[in-house]
Amino acid sequence: MNRLDTRTHLFVLILATFFWVIMHGKLAIHCLLLISACYLCYAEYPRRALKFIIAYIILIMLAYLSAPYMAILYIILNTFARAIPLMIIGATIMKANPSQLMESYQRLHIPKMLLVMVCILIRFFPVLRKEMFFIRDGIRARGLFPNWFDIIKHPAMAYECFFMPLIARCLKLSSELGASAELRGLDSPCPRSCIYRIGFSVRDILAMLLYSAGGIAIYWGVGR
Fold first, then answer.
1. What's the rounded Cα separation, in Å, for the pair 49 and 35?
2. Among 9, 56, 120, 169, which lies 20 to 30 A Cα-Cα from 91?
3. Interatomic CA distance for residues 218 and 23, integer angstroms
4. CA dihedral sign of residues 94, 201, 204, 188
5. Which of 11, 34, 6 is nearest to 214 (CA)?
6. How confident is the model over 192-209, as pLDDT tens digits?
7. pLDDT averaged over the chain?
8. Which of 91, 72, 93 shows the shortest CA–CA distance to 83?
9. Residue 97 has pLDDT above 90, yes or no
10. Across the chain, how many H-helices and E-strands are there?
């Protein structure tokens, strides 16, 4: 695997958060989104970067369309859009292999219990997405909502048919993932081993330097 080290993602996420806090103006956020998307492409996730850019554009357009009619909706959508540059960098950590992530972050002396929670969380979201699709297919198989607008007609029934099974599955998934983590020895006091390459390379150093230079250039150019 020639992808960037997970500690590089953490360092860039801290950098992105710092620039996100000190920058002012919509143009600065646009530019921060672009360099974050470039970093995601550099980390070999170009399709995910494109999805984030499309989501950002859609949120911005919906925010401007809703501004004359509902100010609170504009604030909510705009806030979500402004958080996308940070979500882009966070996506690299969420896509990391849990074994590689634990091995690299243990070298930073991060508490093991915190690492176990993060790894279980990373495993939880993809499984939860599959469970949501299974519940949707079960609803369709039973013929409860043959048309999409039936959900609008019966919101209480839709909530009961979807979210109640989802809550029950989440409780079961949490226990299953906890048992899986314990079975794989995540709580073992022995030193861990990893089949993946752990360590910084020239690509990692170049990624951190380029993102730092891009953030500084945006701040001095349009972010002050």
1. 11
2. 169
3. 8
4. positive
5. 34
6. 666 667 778 888 899 999
7. 81
8. 91
9. no
10. 9, 0
Distances (CA, A) of 161 to 30, 65, 138, 144: 40, 33, 10, 9
Taken as a whole, the chain contains a residue count of: 224
Residues 174, 78: Cα–Cα separation, whole Å: 33
Tens-digit pLDDT profile for residues 10-52: 899 999 999 998 888 888 888 999 999 999 998 888 888 899 9
Measure CA 86 to chain center: 9
Please give the DSSP secondary-structure letter assigned to residue 191: P
The two three-digit tokens of residue 92, written as one number: 């690299």
DSSP 44: T
Q: What are the tokens at 33? A: 């989104």
- Residue pointed to by tokens 């969420």: 94
**CA 77 to the chain's CA centroid:** 17
Residue 6 CB burial class (10 angstroms; 0-12, 13-18, ≥19): buried
- Distance between CA atoms of residues 22 and 32, nearest Å: 12
Given phi > 0 = left and psi -120 to 50 = alpha, else beta, which region is 185? left
